[in-house]
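pinned: reference chain
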Amino acid sequence: MKPQNTLYIISDEHRYSALGCYGSDIVQTPNLDRLAAKGTRFTNAYCPSPTCVPCRASLATGQYVHQIGTWSSAQPFDGQAKSWMMRLREEGHHVASIGKLHFRDEHERNGFSEEIIPLHIVNGLGWVKGLMRDELPSYNRETLEYATEVGQGESSYTDYDRAVTKRAKQWLKTQSETDHEKPWALFLSFVCPHYPLFAPEPFFNLYNPNEIELPQSYDPQFWSTHPVMQDYYQFYNYPDHFDEERAKMAIASYYGMCSFLDDNIGQVLNTLEALGLSENTRIIYTSDHGDLMGDHGQWTKMCMYEGSAGVPLIISGEGVPENHVVDTAVNLIDSYPTILDSVGIPLNEEDKSLPGDSLFEIISETPSERVTFCEMHDGFSHGFYMLRTSPHSELGDWKLVYYPGYPPQLFNLTDDPLELHDLGQVEETAVVRQALEAKLRKIVDPEAADHQARQSQAALLEKLGGTEAILSKEDTDFGYTPIRIEDD
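pinned: its structure tokens
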């Protein structure tokens, strides 16, 4: 495959069902739909962890959370593990970031040649409340905030994404005027459609809240009776703050933010084409995780339901089949070898030891037995582990969710795409459960990883002064990362 520039576009909290090209007949995303028509769309792509900080650390390093110890939103990537950005710079490529990173801080050790208006974790500490696993703090203020900050309007996040778009267009113009010996890479990272759910007027007006249909699983009769999920519903008490009217407004606002995001991406793609860079640039689009948007009565992410753990993933450019769909199970950890492959860097032995594979190789494969994995250790008392098979595997189209100390959940996603029927304790699925757990244990020892995560988090919590010290500090109490815009 010919080495080319690589534009990696990532958003925050964009569920894959909220794109036209993924089957939505409501959400208007013409630019991403056009990108999918010109390239390949993955229908079973997942994040390595359904929350920003751990996911982005895994994306950078090509390793799972339990391999690098970035368990929570207070334990980010800090440059200690090798990143794909470092590999590109080692090989003489210019690699830049514009927008959200959610690493420890702005520093050369992150691996980029330049970081433009980066967004890192708050005060180098992040969301430290998530370290409290044994004695959970109240999350009521955050859930109330999510439910009330919805509707037509602007926020620091919409302002920030406009600044990201502006800088991206400027950066691309500079590259069009610069001779590079080797292909460049740009990590372009937007924060929308992450809450607060304020959608700018023209985009909010695309969706009438009164015409929004709530998901079937919004009805409590479909909520899981699994003991871990019962704890989850009680802790993340979103139903206390949402009635049907508020839920429809939130979904309409989210859709408006998805269209706002799409418009910003369209501006960047149009600039790429106008500058004559589109012919020698591959484009990748994804998101760091999804958003439940009322599925099972819940919102945001931090669990293994499809709306949370699944992500959109589109690749376009030279060597990529057009209007093509791949249903093999893939993961954002596959980004590391994919980017190296795109710019023309052969994998060394260390690269080959990583758990991911180049998506360009997966595109050319026949349907495979490949499985993928996701884990969650942040802001809740239980640890979650997910194993997903590829739909055409010998076992079938399954998702196993494993909880140390509790029975697993099991869903057949062909028969039950809305995950309404848990087969985790059905006698007829025992053989499938055993086979999937064996595959899971080849990736991770869930009990050992759960113990390691708790020990690491408890040690950091003690280092920061303990529970009382954390809860007494106002600057550690936030539902989403505050942003100070510094753009000329």
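why pinned: The chain has a mean pLDDT of 95. The two ends are 39 Å apart (CA to CA).
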